[in-house]
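Worked example 3. Consider a protein that binds magnesium ion.
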Amino acid sequence: MIILLDMDGVLADFEQGFVRGWTARFPEHPPLDPRDRRHFSIRDDYPTHQGAMVQAVYHAEGFFRDLAPMPGALDAARALADLGHDVRICTSPLRHYRHCVPEKYEWIDAHLGPEFVNRMIVTRDKTLVRGDVLVDDNPDITGAQVPAWRHVVFDQPYNQQVAGPRMTWATWRDVIADAAPR
Ligand SMILES: [Mg+2]
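Given these inputs, the predicted complex is written out as structure tokens:
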């Protein structure tokens, strides 16, 4: 199968990185506990008047480069490739792309190596990408096409409202095995 893996919230620990960046930048304002996140966009989980502060954290140079891998993610990505799947990294950059885009490439190179850099698809519209499975924490992925892939939701506190297949890096083997092409 062609398996598309999202980065933020799937391979890379955006939530932990955000809390770290926020705490360093705004020590007088306690960050939201990631377990209390309810909206996919983190800006929507903070008060409107803190919107610029939220953006300042993830627009900062080094934010994406320094994200920690999600536990188990790197081993699982390599294991999927070893099982014979065609694994691609499918990620949507911020509109504020200056640091985000190069740092996403640096991150994959550092953590998964040049073979996976060669497998990166950077797009704002994932519905235009062909594949059998997309593993993504975004509960609502829309775009110009009806997707060819089956969406497997990567379990996060802010996507509990959607039904359908759902996985973590502890359960991926069974879920992806069941997520055969339609
Ligand atoms: Mg994501």
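Take a moment to read the result before moving on. Residues 14-59 form a domain with the Ribonucleotide Reductase Protein R1; domain 1 fold (CATH 1.10.40). The two ends are 11 Å apart (CA to CA).
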